[in-house]
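## retry 2 of 3
previous attempt timed out at serialization; input unchanged, resubmitting
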Amino acid sequence: MSVDNSNGSNNIIGEGTSLKGNLKTSGNVRLEGDVIGDISSSSKVACGETSFVDGNVTAENAELAGKVSGKVTVKELLILKSTAKIHGDISTNNLIIESGANFNGACTMGKEEEVEDAPEVDDEE
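## retry succeeded, writing output
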């Protein structure tokens, strides 16, 4: 996956670290610890197996292997690894779910387009 990270910023929250509050960045986020709050990145968010997010995740691209309790909104590609446990709604353009991943919520994919009314079918013949 190609990620444009023009400012070179990499933000790491390591295992055993807990953050209460919202995190907003234009750079990449690598999470192995806990975040109680929202994560927003205009680049990539990667949550490892030991990570836990109690809040919303918004990113250009994301790869989730830990637990998320909240809405996940990804502009391009969202990958749910086999160890991921997501409790909340997902909105993304492209989605890959590995076998073993656990996802409970609604999923909206692609750009919302107006759907034309289907033509009526005449059952009388």
